[in-house]
Amino acid sequence: MDRISCKKQKNITMSSTESELNALSDGEQENKWLTFLIEELWKTRLSPTLFHINNKGLLEKLKNFGSNSKTKHLDSKAKNLREKFKNN
Question: What's the predicted TM-score (pTM) here?
Answer without folding.
Answer: 0.71
